[in-house]
Amino acid sequence: METQEKKRIYSAMQPSGMITLGNFLGALNNWNQMQEEYDCIFCVANMHAITVRQDPAELRKRCRDLITQFIAVGLDPEKNIIYYQSHVPAHAQLGWILDCYTYMGELSRMTQFKDKSAKHADNINAGLFTYPSLMAADILLYQTDLVPVGEDQRQHLEITRDIGERFNGLYGETFRIPEAYIGKVGARVMALQDPTKKMSKSDENKNNTIAILDDPAVIMNKVKRAVTDSENEVRFAEEKPGISNLLSIYSGVTGKTIAEAEKEFAGVGYGAFKNAVGEAVVAKLEPIQKNFKDLQNNKDYLDAIIKEGAQKAERIANRTLDKVQKKIGFPLTIR
Ligand code: ATP
Ligand code: LTN
After folding, report:
1. What is the pTM of this model?
2. Atom of ligand 1 nearest to the CA of 45
3. 23, 43, 202: which to mutate for ligand 2, most atoms within 8 A of CB?
4. Is 112 helix (H, G, I), strand (E, B) or coil?
5. 266-271 long-range CB contacts below 8 Å, 24 or more apart?
6. Is 323 tagged catalytic?
7. Which residue of 59, 70, 109, 324 has the smallest Cβ count within 10 Å?
8. Residue nearest to atom 18 of ligand 1 (CA)
């Protein structure tokens, strides 16, 4: 009997800023742990990134930094496919086709569209509106089983499933219908200066975020300045969002449970607690930063990975695209 294929995981991250500790604990670190069990594809979603205005030089650098960080945290380019979205034309091609199978009504219900159009009122472009059908194309092209994303992306997963099912209903089995794979609750890191909102890489206040490439001294400083409360008790509680956030971060980087961390810091003042959290974060990030620097100095190696990633991704994506084009009545692409 044939051995059962591994399930396919697909995920992507936009190059919209420096990767934060939130992105790391909520996404990258989990991706890292999935690579043994699943067949994984990880993408730098640079086509999605231009739905808000970007500075070209900065975008280019962020894309390179992002793919380098994917590898620096431990994603193995031999085992997984790691690539730039814009290197695989099938995304744009299927994105357009799926636009024609997606309704205005569905797209206007997306909360991310509503949020982003409020935030960028001077640039409510058509790409921002059709963002979800491009994301559906990303996922459906690779016949994906599972998509690890944060809670905020659940609605985009739902519309992906709806579009995929609609297409399958019209033309017969074409796409595998993916499931969302939402990480465990608590994997939500909050902003250091305002622990009621999430840490976000596009946050303009850099004291809210810890970038995984921040210098150790900067990290220590940001943690020390994190907003807490007027008690002096290290305890996880809803009314203590600042301390709870630091406890989650500590637990995330050390692998200890919240209860173990609370025990460890019982009777310890906030100053010493923050020091320990800062040191634990630095210790976790140090090897990643070292890998990042080494990779940066190894341009040819990185270029080869990027090229190979695109080729491997393209082979899979084109298979699905050909199937779709045939079903809807386009002439076969001669490859
Ligand atoms: P942006 O500021 O551009 O919206 P972001 O930092 O919010 O970026 P995304 O690019 O939207 O991050 O998300 C990348 C991945 O990181 C997603 O899987 C998302 O769920 C996860 N993620 C983002 N922020 C956090 C956070 N604060 N805590 C845990 N996970 C997070
Ligand atoms: N919209 C996602 C990024 C993203 C994505 C994807 C995630 C683009 N395409 C495909 C999973 C699968 C975000 O902003 N986090």
Report:
1. 0.93
2. 10
3. 43
4. helix
5. 266/234, 268/234, 269/232, 270/228, 270/232, 270/234, 270/243, 271/224
6. no
7. 109
8. 149
Please report which ligand is nearest the Cα atom of 24: 1
> Which pLDDT belongs to residue 187?
66
One domain for residues 164 and 55: yes
Assess contact for 112 and 177: CB atoms under 8 A. Answer: no
From the candidates 119, 198, 274, 326, give the one annotated as an active-site residue.
198
Ligand number, closest to the Cα atom of 18: 1
Domain harbouring 70, CATH code: 3.40.50.620
Q: Which residues line ligand 1 (CB under 6 A)?
A: 13-14, 16-17, 20, 22-23, 25-27, 149-150, 152, 187-189, 198-202
104 shares its domain with 227: no
* Tokens encoding 239: 């009314």
Note whether 17 and 42 are same-domain residues: yes
Beta bridge partners of 42: 11, 82
Question: Is 263 among the catalytic positions?
Answer: no
Sign for the CA dihedral angle at 251, 253, 256, 262 comes to negative
Domain count, the chain: 2
30 plus 168 within the same structural domain: yes
78-125 residue pLDDT tens:
999 999 999 999 999 999 999 999 999 999 999 999 999 998 999 999
Which tokens hold the place of 56? 């070209």
Q: What averages of pLDDT result for each successive group of 10 residues across the chain (335 residues)?
A: 77 93 91 92 98 96 97 96 98 98 97 92 96 98 94 93 98 97 74 94 93 97 97 94 96 94 96 98 98 97 98 98 98 90
Both 266 and 318 in one domain: the answer is: no
Do residues 174 and 221 share a domain?
no
| Domain residue limits at 215 | 206-294
Cα 88 to ligand 1 centre (Å): 24
Do 64 and 152 share a structural domain?
yes
Residue 64 in tokens: 């390179």
